[in-house]
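CORE FACILITY INTAKE
Project code: CF-77B
Contact: R.S. (postdoc)
Sample description: multi-component assembly, four entities in total
Requested service: structural model of the whole complex
Turnaround: standard
Below are the sequence entries exactly as provided by the requester. Do not edit them.
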Amino acid sequence: MSADYFAPFDTIRFEGPESTNDLAYRWYDKDRVVMGKRMEEHLRFAVCFWHTFCWPGSDVFGAGTFNRPWHAGPNDAARATAKREAALAFVEKLDVPFYCFHDVDVMADAEDAGSFRSSFAEAVDHLEELQGKHGRQLLWGTANLFSHPRYMAGAATNPDPEVYAWAAMQVRDCLEATHRLGGANYVLWGGREGYDTLLNTEIGIEQENFGRLLSLVVEHKHRIGFKGAILIEPKPHEPTKHQYDFDTQTVYAFLKRFGLENEVKVNIEANHATLSGHTFEHEIAMARALGIFGSIDANRGDPQNGWDTDQFPNSVEETTLAMIEIIRAGGFTTGGFNFDAKVRRQSIDATDLFHGHIGGIDTIARALLRAAAIIEDGQLDAFRQERYAGWRGETGKAIHAPEATLASVAELAIQANRAPEPRSGRQEWLENLVNRF
Amino acid sequence: MSADYFAPFDTIRFEGPESTNDLAYRWYDKDRVVMGKRMEEHLRFAVCFWHTFCWPGSDVFGAGTFNRPWHAGPNDAARATAKREAALAFVEKLDVPFYCFHDVDVMADAEDAGSFRSSFAEAVDHLEELQGKHGRQLLWGTANLFSHPRYMAGAATNPDPEVYAWAAMQVRDCLEATHRLGGANYVLWGGREGYDTLLNTEIGIEQENFGRLLSLVVEHKHRIGFKGAILIEPKPHEPTKHQYDFDTQTVYAFLKRFGLENEVKVNIEANHATLSGHTFEHEIAMARALGIFGSIDANRGDPQNGWDTDQFPNSVEETTLAMIEIIRAGGFTTGGFNFDAKVRRQSIDATDLFHGHIGGIDTIARALLRAAAIIEDGQLDAFRQERYAGWRGETGKAIHAPEATLASVAELAIQANRAPEPRSGRQEWLENLVNRF
Amino acid sequence: MSADYFAPFDTIRFEGPESTNDLAYRWYDKDRVVMGKRMEEHLRFAVCFWHTFCWPGSDVFGAGTFNRPWHAGPNDAARATAKREAALAFVEKLDVPFYCFHDVDVMADAEDAGSFRSSFAEAVDHLEELQGKHGRQLLWGTANLFSHPRYMAGAATNPDPEVYAWAAMQVRDCLEATHRLGGANYVLWGGREGYDTLLNTEIGIEQENFGRLLSLVVEHKHRIGFKGAILIEPKPHEPTKHQYDFDTQTVYAFLKRFGLENEVKVNIEANHATLSGHTFEHEIAMARALGIFGSIDANRGDPQNGWDTDQFPNSVEETTLAMIEIIRAGGFTTGGFNFDAKVRRQSIDATDLFHGHIGGIDTIARALLRAAAIIEDGQLDAFRQERYAGWRGETGKAIHAPEATLASVAELAIQANRAPEPRSGRQEWLENLVNRF
Amino acid sequence: MSADYFAPFDTIRFEGPESTNDLAYRWYDKDRVVMGKRMEEHLRFAVCFWHTFCWPGSDVFGAGTFNRPWHAGPNDAARATAKREAALAFVEKLDVPFYCFHDVDVMADAEDAGSFRSSFAEAVDHLEELQGKHGRQLLWGTANLFSHPRYMAGAATNPDPEVYAWAAMQVRDCLEATHRLGGANYVLWGGREGYDTLLNTEIGIEQENFGRLLSLVVEHKHRIGFKGAILIEPKPHEPTKHQYDFDTQTVYAFLKRFGLENEVKVNIEANHATLSGHTFEHEIAMARALGIFGSIDANRGDPQNGWDTDQFPNSVEETTLAMIEIIRAGGFTTGGFNFDAKVRRQSIDATDLFHGHIGGIDTIARALLRAAAIIEDGQLDAFRQERYAGWRGETGKAIHAPEATLASVAELAIQANRAPEPRSGRQEWLENLVNRF
């Protein structure tokens, strides 16, 4: 029944840019080799459970609009089973390798700790079976520590240690499940780790507790032999007024403070980047510079709307700039492109789920081709190298010399006593150059 | 002539809330003791050179509107001298203890290194004399590393090491001048330390160079025996698209990375806070939590305008929230409230300069009284303490125990196997409580 | 049972600024006469059904946190009855005169047209009885044309005329019910009148249809003899990407286009104002200038969050500026202050509902006192009058003369041939003046 | 000398997408026929004086960085002459048909009315000669009513009628000059028509005066026989806190109020659109729906920066969406694409001026080709038509019938008594469709 939902659709295949088939890839050719790697290995696409299989199409101002068959089962357990089957079937139809989940996405509801754990364990058993059946893999798992009312004041940053312990329970089980399912990463998104008002908040206590949980997670990961990366996903606001994991540099500050900068990386989401006042590519470039680039949540925001709209990426231009930074960062190791994106509330048909993902996948695939062409062309990087050439010259070396002091550097200017030569930054030319590809 | 500009004005005195004199303080009573300290010592007000004495009232869309007599001198040297005299006379008229300057604010223009240094040296001599004459002190000095065309691509982050050396020269001289003038702090605002486009920028190189300069400055400070604090002023955007010192946590990340977190603090500006997506009080609270709270640039932005409007603070409500955090941080040590604020372009008269500063000073003074009353009342802090009381109980201690693991914490939840008790966050009650004072 | 929820609370009474009773008014003294009118008549407070009695404390990222007894009844009809009883009991406890509702807020769910109408009719009967029992009145009614999935693409702007007819049915019934219940106004908020993407939208058709519905509503109002005002509530975004009723001037353009500017007014919401790039007071001032000021939705946004946070007003300073404009507009005739505000998701107790409303009411009452004092003082208005005095002089009259032409006005400048005298705008002095009260 | 500045550059020619010549058009092929019109006629490109020839590369935080030879002449008159020569020479080198100017851009400074007028008159004589020499035309002229200190409180909305008269003088002369030079339009941008604070502002008086000036301008246009369009350029903020011409709908409200909606159109700027909370294409679509679409200022903003960055357009994707709306509006009649864009402050070379314009021109030309292909393909418009098909059916006709009432429309729903059929909005499919071209 639920599985039948996607039965009318064939597996999505590459047909090339000239195809007029709405249900084909025009740019994503998984076996095409780009810069020495197959596209599938470069991009490591994943479909998420929450937006695509759990969300009913509701928003703050209205009820769900989607009539997914797996939402209509006779009881919660049956609905959860149907949802898992539908999800993995869909991922196979898209012919992308990965999926992602929160614990509560894949399981039947349960209130007490014992039932919660057993319900989740059953779900994991089923997922393992479905992974085999459909030939799909897990990009990452994560525990949902924000939807249940118990988390209204945070999980690791909750004033109540009982809530903290619940969170630890979920994280342990989900990390172990991720390990068992062969997940490539484990993600922590601090959904309500932040505050609504400073008036009732002790930032100091909350951040110490948050840091402690992260340390325990890292320690547990090593204990159980999980080889995947631990990832934190930055977000500046929403649902709380202020989220502690504001952006990549804030996360880095946090990691440094707790000595975890070599243990934890970031999962960067495009829409979170723009909500924090940065471009998508900035966040990737900064993560690269700080050595903490991990994975990507591929979606886009709406520049006119001040909340997380989680739309499928459709700008090749913007994604190309992000892709250049990903390539510079060496590409993904354990990470990938997870579609943390949802079809619009009016896009109520099964076919819309395909259009959303196909559009996003093709946008990113095309951006990869453009970015690779730009990098292989070399002019962009050559200009950048030339721009900083002075640092390889005499003055640059004198400044970088270990024995240099403020006074010795100041003396360089006094001795030279001339105006530095102004050089154009060539922004317009560089923008034109990028547009050429 | 220039000095005469303020001659019609008497020294501004405290006359109490009922006064209808526009040129009197209604709340700032410098000798009134609040929480054990005189108001003057609490607030440590400073007037800035740049907005109040250098800026002619121009903006991007129009020419200067102010006809200050010190802008009309026969030559640049005469204008600089008149400006310094006017400035210190004004600070005395306001009866606040401090002023602040950029090197180029106080001196005659000069293009080559030698003339630049001697012009600045003359200015410093004169300032020293004026400090004595008017009985005023220097809160902080700073080098302007952003206005001259040579800095169009940054100072410490410039691709050209010659520019870097110029910056080092200015910083050394200005730090030494600040030391000689008895300045309480030395500030670095990275005006153009950032980028306009990632296409021409190597973040990695730029940040390494920036970190290096900061290390050299710290080392030089100790070498010359300067006891004041070195302060970085965060700002997210403007003039560049992205400024490296985005906000307090970004600065902390930077300091941690270069091992400078115990050597450098932040100078927080209210308008920069809001432009970076934070409240003013957030930035102070975060600096306190990270141990890097230094000083304040007191101004406000316009919530409808996306640039730095640098207006005088006029909200007692908002400033009270900031003041609570300052008191919690232990108040200022070397820092103070510098008015990095400018009268509006239409406020062309000498009296407007007084109204701007008087309004700002009274707003902050009144906020101090309210904040002190709230803290002395104790209900706010008592609620916060009670909210986190669980962490002093059994579960909290078990989580914090050095031997705790993710598994041991998870087991706490499994053993308890009950829903944590939901407790109201009481935001509305807390807001009402604050409004009571 | 539901009614018992508020039994522990006494009716809220005025106790004056010195009271330390959290459940008393400190500024709202309903019988106090301000500028010739009782406070209760000035402010005309209303409590809304939706946020306070319908919303369970859910958000996009999590489930409801409130355990209101009226949400736990055995069936939908019982729950609706209990909700109505609780609501009117609460309004009486607050001792404010009005309440507001959407049709679906007060009734049991129903899918087909017949049951929908009869369910609503029963609810209206009950409300009429409760109004009498509790001595409360209806400030305004409105039809919810956005929550049901049928409205996902709009109501009056839906591409499907069947949906439009449904909307007309709801509006007719709700307008007639409002009339019968003695409502002072009828409101239209175009919750989904807008678009998510221009790609599938014909603005021309949608706006024509929207204008037509409004015309039909106005005609029907006169037909049934409803004397209250018809009000449109502007909002720029959310839930749709772009809402047609963007702000007051956009609504005015719309009204003018369909010849309705003398028939329809605006219901201005503070948070919608700020989301559209304006201050709250701007929207009121503009509505006054255009002759369409109607009523107020009293809430506030969060300046750091880009969505409608609908918080209770707690800034006396901001509300004072709005109140000055309301007084200038002549105060309310049929309008009032409706609390379209919700307690925070963590504020889960009955007492929090009281704190939210008491805080909002006192904030507004205090703002009224300040605004009245400022206006009675007269300096603010005198300055404004003086500033435009030139328009009452010779040059002003010559420009305003009916026979003036561009050439004749140009000649005034040529003849005078002198620089106009610059005059300070005195913004800082005016801000200080306002802070004095 | 100044003319020599561009001597090293050949006239820019179309060389096709494969060209690697940085100084050639890759998409703008002026004689290529698209949808029945030559590209040159479609796009009607214009170069502006102010950003490209007047601005020295300064910003609020720093001095000019450009060393244009025409800024270095011996006196103001010589500099103005050289600037005019350089400008028209540059426009010819770009091989685009039009230029635009403010009065003060093209003339030597002058303080009194007589000298101002004669200086401008001389400039106009020279421009007429240069137009002939270089074979270029004027897209539009405009008077700068915002840069001079006299306009600090507005021009038409100034509290001082003497300033108003000055403005009228400039507008009359500039309108007549535009007429004489064969200009296709006359533009009014209300640079400081707005307010910094409501505290000192009477919106009512200011808007009445503004409306009056516009009426006088329209009357004068007809009097002198000027056949071009009068255009208002909306902008929401900056330099003032609030600008009266906030956006297209606000301008429409204003025009309707003063009965000018058939006389005046809008000149839409992309960056102003986004600052006002709209997309560029929204503003065009809205102007089309209201019948006031006139012309375009082609630039882009920076989504992370809250001020007018005035960058050259470089997004083909975004411009395509705007171009679709322009084509739907019937294309330009008198209007065109004016580059109200400036090279970055670091782009200091003559060649950067070419790169900026070439990039912008190619971006727009390519967008035209894509938009034309999308419209000629027809799927997008077919989907839209089908989406609204119901309005051509029975229910739609019944609603639109002149005799329809709210009651008769409501009865349609009651009679049908069934749930309207939900239909997908297909946003993702439409986005994919657009990306296909």
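Facility notes:
- The mean pLDDT of chain A is 97.
- The first strand of chain A starts at residue 33 and ends at 34.
Invoice: internal transfer
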